[in-house]
Amino acid sequence: MIAFFLYIIFLQKKLVNGWEMLAHPNKLLDLWIIAGIVAIAGITTSFQGLNQFVDDRVNRTSDDLRLTDISPLSQSLSYILSASLISFVMQIFVFAIVTIYFSLTDHIKIFVNDLWPSLGIMLLAAVVDTVLNLIIVAFIHK
Q1: Exposed/middle/buried for 92, CB within 10 Å: 0-12, 13-18, 19+?
Q2: Rounded to whole angstroms, what are the CA distances from 36 to 1, 40, 63?
Q3: Which of 42, 51, 59, 135 has its CA 20 to 30 A from that of 113?
Q4: CA–CA separation, 12 vs 5, rounded Å?
C-alpha cells in the first residue's frame, strides 16, 4: 500500500503528463499500477508469511514437529499453503482497495468477466511467489 500512496502523491501527475500522447493515459496507468501494486503485495506478504518457517527453524520448533506424525513434506506444504493463502487474501484486499479508488477518481471499469481470470492469476502468483520466497528463505539460518 505504501507504493500506492507514493504513486498517488508523487508520481501520478508526472507519469500522466509523460503519456499524454495516448487517448486515456490515466486509465492505462491506473490499470498498470493496479497490476504492479497487487504483484508487490503478493510477493511481500508471502515472504512475511514464511517468517514462521524461519522462526521454527531458528527456535528448533521444527525438531519438535519431527516427533509427531507429521512428515517433513507435510510440514513444508503447510508453510507453503499458509503463506500462499496469506498472499492471496492480501492481493484480493489490495486489488479491491486500489480498484475502488481508481473507479471513483478516474472512472475505470473492471467487469465481472475480468475478475475470474484476475483471481486465477492472483492465486497462481501467490503460490509461485511463496515457492520463490521459500527458496530464498531456505538459506536463512538466523
Answers
A1: middle
A2: 11, 6, 39
A3: 42
A4: 10
What one-character DSSP code corresponds to residue 138?
Answer: T
**Binning pLDDT at 50, 70 and 90, where does residue 8 land?**
low
What's the mean pLDDT in 101-116? Answer: 86
DSSP state of 7: I
Mean pLDDT, residues 90-117 taken together: 89
Contact 26, 14 (CB under 8 A): no
Q: Angle at CA 88, nearest 5°, toward 58 and 83?
A: 10
| Grid cell listed for 110 | 473492471
pLDDT of residue 11: 66
Specify whether the CB–CB gap between 38 and 93 falls below 8 A. no
From residue 48, how far is each of 66, 73, 75, 127 by CA, in Å?
A: 24, 21, 17, 14
pTM (two decimals): 0.82
- What is the grid cell recorded at 32? 498498470
